[in-house]
Amino acid sequence: MAQKPPTILVVNDDGIFSNGIYALAKALSALGTVVVVAPDRQQSAVGHALTVNAPLRVTPFHRDGTLFGYAVNGTPADCVKLAVNKLLPAPPDLVASGINHGANTAANILYSGTVSAATEGMLLGIPSMAVSVDTLNESFDCSAAAHYALHIARMLLSMDLPRGTFLNVNVPALPLDDIRGIRFTRQGSAYWRDTYVEMQDPQGHTVYWIKGQYIIPENEAPDADDIALRQGYVSVTPIRYQLTDEALLHSLRTRYAHVDLTVDTHRTNAQS
Ligand code: MN
């Protein structure tokens, strides 16, 4: 008996008009039914923000004369939540976010709207992946990244992904033939050294514009995401959202086991 083809929710943070989401939707349609629900504007670096003080509006978005998907005046996480809760008749089999212009390695994972859409899918119990290509050039051809996204989506649908984990995929900005294959990696320790450029607005007020320099430490782990990218490999990192430092939790409990942790001021206030 033939299995029902999977439903795939495609989302991004660069906006529904981006060529990256178009390449991803097109590639994944080989795998099943693709539904695109994405922000109606650029939402990069919004992280896991949710819209709570305003209503969300859903607008059909056409591309080349046909319906491509649904544009939402919200964040990437809004798009996933709304699609799963309201727009889709049943939860999708896969959430795929991207293809983002700009690598989402190391510290970028925290700021990224692309990654947060995958995080939201994972929180809702759906196998999820984020895909980014290592260039900020918005007209870069994403077909090689889309090719690998399809491959990894197949892998993801056939594996038993632990609940609470999703896949973060980063693809070098190279032609397909120059990409050396896939490496399974860890989140690296690269970071942004930020400065704020001071300038004048047209009214003469001082404003500040962030200007970051991305630093990959000299002693970066050889199996880090950025190292794989730099060597021409597709980096695939299993990412968990559980943030508790288990070792410190244990040592705090042990160290303070016999100490009265009642805050004195609270007691005196309660008695007075
Ligand atoms: Mn982006």
Distinctive features:
single chain, 28% helix, alpha/beta, binds manganese (II) ion, Stationary-phase Survival Protein Sure Homolog, Chain: A, 272 residues, 8 helices, 9-stranded mixed sheet, two-stranded antiparallel ribbon, 28% strand, 11 strands
The CATH class assignment is Alpha Beta
The whole-angstrom Rg is 21 Å
Domains (count): 1
Query: Which overall shape is indicated by the principal axes computed on the Cα atoms?
Result: globular
Terminal CA distance: 74 Å
Helix content: 25-40%
Strand percentage: 25-35%
The succession of helices and strands, N to C, reads EHEEEHEHHEHEEEEHEHH
Number of strands: 11
The largest β sheet comes out as: 9 strands, mixed
Low-confidence stretches: none
Class from helix and strand fractions: alpha/beta
Q: For the largest beta sheet, what order do the strands appear in spatially? A: 3-4-2-1-5-6-7-11-8
Query: How many H/I helices?
Result: 8
Describe the structure.
- By secondary structure, the protein is α/β, with parallel strands linked by helices.
- It has a single domain, classed as 3-Layer(aba) Sandwich (Stationary-phase Survival Protein Sure Homolog, Chain: A), CATH 3.40.1210.
- The protein is 28% helix and 28% strand.
- It contains eight helices and eleven strands.
- The strands form two sheets. A nine-stranded mixed beta sheet has the order 3-4-2-1-5-6-7-11-8. Strands 9-10 form a two-stranded antiparallel ribbon.
- Helix 2 packs parallel to helix 4.
- The chain is globular and about 65 Å long.
- The model has no long low-confidence stretch (mean pLDDT 95).
- The chain binds manganese (II) ion.
- Manganese (II) ion (MN) binds next to loops.
- Residues 13-14, 44, 100, 102, 114 line the site of manganese (II) ion.
